[in-house]
Amino acid sequence: MLVISEDEVLRVLDHNELRETMRTALCELSAGRVIQPLRGVIRIAGHNGWYGVMPAVFQDVIGTKLVTVFPQNVDRGLHTHNAVIHLFRSETGEPLAVVGGRVITALRTAAVSALATAELSREDARVLAILGSGVQARSHYEALKLIRNFQDVRVWSRTPEHAARFAAEIGATVMSAEKAVRNADVIVTATSSATPLLRGEWLRDGAHVNAIGAVGPHMRELDDHAMQNAAIIVESREAALVESGDIIDSGRAIYSELGELLTGCKPKPQSRTTVYKSLGVAVEDIAAAKLVYDKSPRRASSGQL
Question: Is 0.90 topped by the overall pTM?
Fold first, then answer.
């Protein structure tokens, strides 16, 4: 059984290849060819954290991501999200690999948002607004700049020094959340907010939003106006109706799963404004880990071909 580190994950993963792997995974999910129960979550109340178990069967592998989220780690200089992914051969149940999952979580989330952006945003999109300045904000910038030719990138964060550092890294401009969003073509919300911070009145007609944070039935990043005036796209209806406070609290109907759009089973929405609500589902992690495993040069030396 291989143990594949985060460093090796970074070496072998390619943004374009990962994006196409996510396309396959989501199309398979929407077609009913993936076994994927809802994630199980254990709250670690004494430390304001949670531990999640995310299993799926995809193609020739069985996999489970074990993930922890501890927001207070930021004060300790530690990663807030940590994960490992276990892979087994679906034909025999033999263990194949344990793969570092923290980097995969960041990159696969951004890769799926890139798919949604390519499908739903205007082809001439030029203005990108990113609300947030953490790992997901960075991974989304790297993934989305491969999809659209952004000429103006705007950044907002609740911590001004974090916003300034992030903006300097990517050549963006720091401004208020409202100024960043107004007239933006594509917006990314990648925060840990439990209450809405993006208002629908700020959104231009035809804007596309990738809503990445607010995972949980009592968490929100978008207000009711933003939700009610947009077509809502998700990875999994089943997961979104249980895990997305943005969808549950607003009462907004889901237009389609992203996989249904990618396969042409559903037409592109007529609404000019779109929201892709990301939750992160297990098949994305398992498919990404399988890609890393299949590309690992150490498979040959271990005899796992």
Answer: yes
